[in-house]
Structure formats: C-alpha cells, structure tokens
C-alpha cells in the first residue's frame, strides 16, 4: 500500500469521523461544517476532472455551481408557493424532491457545460481561462439583473427538500446524503481516470499531437470531460443551496470559481482525493482563523501563496510525495 | 431617444473605455512581455484609489493625491514583482492564476484592515467640478471630459514609449525573444520590474481618477479587472493597439447597451418584461461581444501570434 493510498483512506474517513464525533457530542454546527466540506469537495472533484485530468484551467466553474443552486432554488420556490413553473406548452410544476432536483441540476449544468465547452475549447491557454471566466460572469450578471427569482437578493427556501426515508433537516442525516454522493462520485472519478477515456484524456493533456496521431480527437475528449466536470459541480451546487436553503448570485461570482480552484490546489492537482483534502483544510481554516481574526482571508492568501510557490503538489503532494506522475 | 442623451451616453462610454484602457494597457504589457496573467492588477487599481483618497483627505490637494496614487501603485507593483511575481514567470498559467488570486485576498483584506469596511470618498477638485456646455447645447460634467482627455494623453504617451524610446525597444524585444535580449546585455529582471511597476502605476492612476466619481472601497478593482481582461482578450493579448480598440469597444457596448437595449426589446415585447429582459441582456452584452470576437478570431482582433 502506497503512502498516498493510506492518506486517501485517512482523508476519506476524516469527514464521517468528524461528523460522528460531533453527533455524539451533540454539536450540530460541526456536523454542518463537515457537510459543507463534503459538498465543496464534491464541487472540487468535479473541477478536478477538467483541471487535473484534462489540464483545462477553467475559471468559470461557478457557472455550473450556480446553475445547480438555481435549479434547486427555482424548483423549490415554485413548490413552496404552489405556482407552476410554466403552463404552456405543457405544465411543469415545482418540486421538493431532492432526487428530481439533482436530476434537473445535473442535466442543466451538463447542457450548459456542453455549450460553454463547445465554444471555449476552440481556444487554448490564457484565452481559455478568460473565456470561461467571461461565461461565468455572464451568468452572474444575468442572475443579478433577472428579477423573477430574487435578482441580487437571491431566493430563500423555508424547508429543506425531501429525500425518501430520511429527515433532511436533521444535520447528521443530511450529512449522510452529501457524503454518500461524494463517495459515489469519488469512486466514479477514480474509475474514470483509470478507464480508456481517462487515460486518453490524460494523454491529450500531455501531448495532444500524439493522441491525434493514434486516431483520437482531443477536442471531443476534452468536451466530454468538461461536461462531466460541469455536471458534478452542478450537483454540488444543488446540494450547497439545499444546505443553506438559500441561493444568490454569489454562487455564480468569479470568487466562487477561484475558491473551487483553491480546494483543488490546496489538496493537490490531479489527485483523486485532492479536493477532499483541500475543502476540509479550507473549512478548518475558515473556522479556526475566522474565529481568531476577522481578516482571516489575509492568512488564507499567504498560505495559498506559500503552497503555490513552495509546496507544489499541494497537501497530498507534500505528504505523500510525487508517487503519481501528474505532469 | 433624444440625440442629446445619446451623445451624453457615447461620451460616458468613451470615458469608461479610456479608463479601461489604463488598466488593460498594463495587463497586456505584462502578459506580452513576461507571459504572466496578473489577477492582482485590480488590487493595484484599488491601492491607487485608496492612496489618493487618503492623501486628498490629509492635504486637500487633488494633484498630490494623483501623485500619491501613481507612487503607491508603482511601489506596490514593484514590491510584489520582487517578492512573488518573478517566481511565477516560468510557471504555468494555473500557478499564476492561483498566486495572484492569493495576492487579491491579501490586498483586499489588508486594505479592509487598514481603512475599515466603509467606503472612502474622493472629491472632484473644485476647478473641475460642475458641468460644461458643449457645442450643440449639451451639458456634460467637466471632470469626465478631463478624464477622457487624460486617458487619451496617457494612451498617446504609452504608444510613444513603446514605439520610440529605448525602453520601448527593449520591451518589444523582450516580447519577441527574451533570451536574445538578455544575451545582448540588457538586465532582463530589471526590465521586468520596470514594466510591472509601469503597468501598476497606470492601474493606480485609473483607480484614483475613477475614485472621484465612484466610491473608494475594497473590492472596487475586481469588476474593472474582469472587464480589462475582456478588453485584452478582445483586442488580442500583448497588443497595445488591441487594448485601445478593445477598451473603447467594451466601454461603448457596456454603456450604450444599458441605454439602448431595453427600448429595443420594447418594440416587440411587453413594456414590463422588456425592461427586465433588456437590462439582463445588456448586463451580459460585453461578454457576448467577447464570445463573438473569439469565435471568429480565437486570438483576438490584433493578436497576431
């Protein structure tokens, strides 16, 4: 067993262990923090598929996070006010069912990723970073200036949505849902990286010309990766909105894109469990430094700077060493 | 839509575009010469605005405030170049994005810590306050007109610097082949620090000038930064000419879109929904412009490489 495998097991266990200890000590706030970490990790796992495997530096993943959030907000707000979403040409009602909301969030963000990816992937390098940033901002300003769903103020949902057989308002049960999804997606992402598709995608990152020579199309590989990545981040957005029972245009802001990227980098780019380590560390820092100083972002900035300048490979890279050749 | 209102909005768009150029010129120079994406450029804009507001508060002089803005932004730029940025030239764009994102966090929270969360106010100097009558009977704020003038002058200065001076030749040579100019005995790292400080000073100047018509607050640089990125992507990264054309295009699109689109949608929609749809589309118009440009010219209007 390599050190990274061992570390992954520890990382995988950290969140449920924290939540269970907090449950035993009756500390619902800590459980909510662990839930938040699991959901943000999920968003990071999504980005990591594009960023780590595909080498696509997307600074616009807030678009998918926000779309997932608004999918939940719009459906649940219609269900809460008993008004249909639309009546012509056919009737669409709002819903309080998480399963339906997740489906809608995944499909919406996947379609958005397909459109954004098809346009953005025509460019490379800095242009790609900037065009994804621009698409994110486009949706951000759209959400702000579209008054039907709260505009700048966002949308509040009074009761968390329903999951069959569970009481979602109970922190530990909602944690179980979020962590369950994270576990499933981590498993899927791990399989994906080892599958034919993942290997071809990695190869396209390392040397696109060679991949083309053996008869694969890098553009198609990247587009599929971008869509999967967007869909996972969208699902995370729906869960995040449900956690807060609130959606606002902030979910679309480029700071959100930057933060999702920070989880990936703090943990380690291209490492399966990187986003889990990064998100957990981020929440830990937010909670501890945020308690010490109102200006904790200064310390976060300094730490991030040190990681980028000196600890390449992030937390996992520093602890486990360069066992995975990721560049 | 009356003609007078339209001309006023065109002037507003020009003023906005000229300010964007001050930001975009630095960004595009830094990218062209050093190959670096600097997300923290908006923080330098903020540093300029805060330095100007603080100095204007102490001394009451707008001229001193402008000098302070230039000096503070250039100094901050040179400092981060020496401490952080020069370690990033050989890194990939991902590292650059993250390190400069970290710098934003440090600058923003540091400024909040120093000056507090409340916005500061920088007054338009008395001599430039008030409107001026333009030919055709248009009343327009004198200060905004002065901003357009200053911006165009600086643009001319930057073009002159790049095209005619020794430094400019070195900068262009650095864009073309950095090993070669280092081999020719030019101190490349000093040149880089200078270019970075120059870009920072332009951003600081923009921050101070705009600070007098908007409030000076933490985070003020970020919307402008993103627009400046849109500008240099439209214009072609590395091209000063592209930055100028892109700035004016984005400034005009943003300003005129907000004025013209809602009535335009009103011609074929109900008035109430036309206003909301029109303003929603207007707020996205520059991004739509950018996507449109990139689809036809994936490396921008003047990005020849």
UniProtKB/TrEMBL annotation, chain A:
<keyword id="KW-1003">Cell membrane</keyword>
<feature type="transmembrane region" description="Helical">
    <location>
        <begin position="297"/>
        <end position="320"/>
    </location>
</feature>
<keyword id="KW-0812">Transmembrane</keyword>
<keyword id="KW-1133">Transmembrane helix</keyword>
<feature type="transmembrane region" description="Helical">
    <location>
        <begin position="58"/>
        <end position="79"/>
    </location>
</feature>
<dbReference type="GO" id="GO:0015658">
    <property type="term" value="F:branched-chain amino acid transmembrane transporter activity"/>
</dbReference>
<feature type="transmembrane region" description="Helical">
    <location>
        <begin position="260"/>
        <end position="285"/>
    </location>
</feature>
<feature type="transmembrane region" description="Helical">
    <location>
        <begin position="172"/>
        <end position="193"/>
    </location>
</feature>
<keyword id="KW-0472">Membrane</keyword>
<feature type="transmembrane region" description="Helical">
    <location>
        <begin position="99"/>
        <end position="119"/>
    </location>
</feature>
<protein>
    <submittedName>
        <fullName>Amino acid/amide ABC transporter membrane protein 2, HAAT family</fullName>
    </submittedName>
</protein>
<dbReference type="GO" id="GO:0005886">
    <property type="term" value="C:plasma membrane"/>
</dbReference>
<dbReference type="InterPro" id="IPR001851">
    <property type="entry name" value="ABC_transp_permease"/>
</dbReference>
<dbReference type="InterPro" id="IPR043428">
    <property type="entry name" value="LivM-like"/>
</dbReference>
<feature type="transmembrane region" description="Helical">
    <location>
        <begin position="219"/>
        <end position="240"/>
    </location>
</feature>
<feature type="transmembrane region" description="Helical">
    <location>
        <begin position="29"/>
        <end position="51"/>
    </location>
</feature>
<dbReference type="Pfam" id="PF02653">
    <property type="entry name" value="BPD_transp_2"/>
</dbReference>
<feature type="transmembrane region" description="Helical">
    <location>
        <begin position="126"/>
        <end position="149"/>
    </location>
</feature>
Automatic annotation (TrEMBL), chain B:
<keyword id="KW-1133">Transmembrane helix</keyword>
<dbReference type="Pfam" id="PF02653">
    <property type="entry name" value="BPD_transp_2"/>
</dbReference>
<keyword id="KW-0472">Membrane</keyword>
<comment type="similarity">
    <text>Belongs to the binding-protein-dependent transport system permease family. LivHM subfamily.</text>
</comment>
<keyword id="KW-0813">Transport</keyword>
<protein>
    <submittedName>
        <fullName>Amino acid/amide ABC transporter membrane protein 1, HAAT family</fullName>
    </submittedName>
</protein>
<dbReference type="GO" id="GO:0006865">
    <property type="term" value="P:amino acid transport"/>
</dbReference>
<keyword id="KW-0029">Amino-acid transport</keyword>
<feature type="transmembrane region" description="Helical">
    <location>
        <begin position="97"/>
        <end position="122"/>
    </location>
</feature>
<feature type="transmembrane region" description="Helical">
    <location>
        <begin position="44"/>
        <end position="60"/>
    </location>
</feature>
<dbReference type="InterPro" id="IPR052157">
    <property type="entry name" value="BCAA_transport_permease"/>
</dbReference>
<feature type="transmembrane region" description="Helical">
    <location>
        <begin position="277"/>
        <end position="296"/>
    </location>
</feature>
<feature type="transmembrane region" description="Helical">
    <location>
        <begin position="244"/>
        <end position="265"/>
    </location>
</feature>
<keyword id="KW-1003">Cell membrane</keyword>
<feature type="transmembrane region" description="Helical">
    <location>
        <begin position="191"/>
        <end position="213"/>
    </location>
</feature>
<dbReference type="GO" id="GO:0022857">
    <property type="term" value="F:transmembrane transporter activity"/>
</dbReference>
<feature type="transmembrane region" description="Helical">
    <location>
        <begin position="219"/>
        <end position="237"/>
    </location>
</feature>
<feature type="transmembrane region" description="Helical">
    <location>
        <begin position="66"/>
        <end position="85"/>
    </location>
</feature>
<feature type="transmembrane region" description="Helical">
    <location>
        <begin position="16"/>
        <end position="37"/>
    </location>
</feature>
<feature type="transmembrane region" description="Helical">
    <location>
        <begin position="142"/>
        <end position="163"/>
    </location>
</feature>
<keyword id="KW-0812">Transmembrane</keyword>
<dbReference type="GO" id="GO:0005886">
    <property type="term" value="C:plasma membrane"/>
</dbReference>
């Amino acid at each position: 067993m390599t050190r990274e495998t061992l570390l992954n097991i520890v990382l995988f266990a950290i969140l449920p262990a924290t939540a269970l200890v907090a449950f035993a000590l009756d500390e619902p706030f800590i459980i909510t923090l662990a839930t938040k970490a699991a959901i943000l990790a999920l968003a990071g796992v999504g980005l990591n598929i594009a960023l780590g495997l595909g080498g696509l530096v997307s600074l616009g993943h807030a678009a998918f996070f926000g779309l997932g959030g608004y999918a939940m907000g719009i459906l649940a707000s219609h269900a809460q006010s008993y008004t249909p979403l639309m009546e012509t040409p056919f009737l669409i009602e709002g819903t309080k069912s998480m399963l339906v909301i997740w489906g809608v969030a995944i499909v919406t963000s996947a379609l958005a990723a397909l459109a954004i990816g098809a346009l953005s992937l025509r460019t490379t390098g800095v242009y790609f970073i900037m065009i994804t940033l621009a698409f994110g901002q486009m949706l951000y300003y759209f959400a702000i200036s579209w008054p039907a769903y709260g505009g700048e103020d966002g949308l509040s949902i009074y009761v968390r949505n329903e999951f069959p057989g569970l009481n979602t308002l109970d922190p530990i049960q909602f944690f179980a849902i979020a962590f369950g999804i994270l576990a499933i997606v981590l498993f899927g992402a791990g399989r994906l990286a080892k599958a034919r598709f993942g290997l071809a995608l990695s190869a396209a990152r390392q040397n696109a010309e060679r991949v083309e020579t053996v008869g694969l199309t890098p553009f198609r590989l990247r587009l599929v990766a971008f869509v999967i990545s967007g869909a996972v981040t969208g699902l995370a957005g729906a869960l995040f909105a449900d956690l807060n029972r609130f959606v606002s245009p902030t979910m679309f802001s480029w700071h959100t894109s930057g933060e999702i990227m920070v989880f990936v980098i703090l943990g380690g780019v291209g490492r399966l469990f990187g986003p889990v380590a990064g998100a957990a560390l981020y929440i830990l820092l937010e909670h501890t430094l945020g308690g010490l100083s109102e200006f904790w972002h200064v310390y976060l900035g300094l730490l991030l700077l040190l990681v980028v300048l000196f600890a390449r490979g992030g937390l996992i890279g520093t602890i486990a060493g360069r066992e995975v050749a990721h560049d | 839509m009356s003609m007078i209102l339209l001309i006023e909005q065109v002037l507003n768009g020009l003023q906005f575009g000229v300010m964007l150029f001050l930001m975009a010129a630095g960004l595009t120079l830094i990218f062209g010469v050093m190959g670096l994406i600097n997300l923290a450029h908006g923080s330098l804009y903020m540093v300029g605005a805060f330095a100007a507001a603080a100095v204007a508060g102490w001394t009451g002089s707008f001229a001193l405030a402008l000098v302070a803005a230039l000096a503070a932004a250039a100094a901050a730029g040179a400092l981060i170049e020496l401490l952080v940025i020069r370690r990033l030239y050989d890194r990939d764009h991902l590292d650059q994005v993250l390190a400069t994102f970290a710098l934003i966090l440090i600058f923003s929270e540091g400024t909040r810590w120093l000056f507090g969360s409340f916005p500061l106010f920088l007054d338009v100097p008395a001599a430039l306050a008030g409107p001026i009558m333009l030919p055709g009977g248009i009343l327009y704020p004198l200060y905004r007109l002065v901003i357009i003038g200053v911006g165009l002058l600086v643009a001319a200065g930057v073009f002159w610097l790049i095209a005619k001076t020794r430094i400019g030749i070195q900068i262009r040579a650095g864009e073309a082949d950095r090993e070669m100019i280092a081999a020719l005995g030019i101190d490349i790292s000093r040149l880089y620090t200078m270019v970075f400080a120059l870009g920072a000073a332009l951003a600081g100047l923009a921050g101070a000038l705009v600070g007098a018509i908007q409030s000076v607050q933490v985070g003020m640089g970020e919307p402008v930064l993103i627009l400046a990125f849109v500008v240099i992507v439209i214009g072609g990264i590395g091209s000063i000419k592209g930055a100028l054309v892109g700035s004016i295009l984005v400034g005009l699109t943003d300003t005129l879109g907000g004025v013209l689109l809602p009535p335009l949608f009103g011609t074929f929609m109900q008035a109430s929904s036309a206003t909301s749809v029109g303003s929603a589309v207007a707020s996205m118009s520059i991004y739509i412009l950018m996507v449109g440009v990139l689809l036809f010219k994936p490396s921008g209007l003047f990005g020849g490489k």
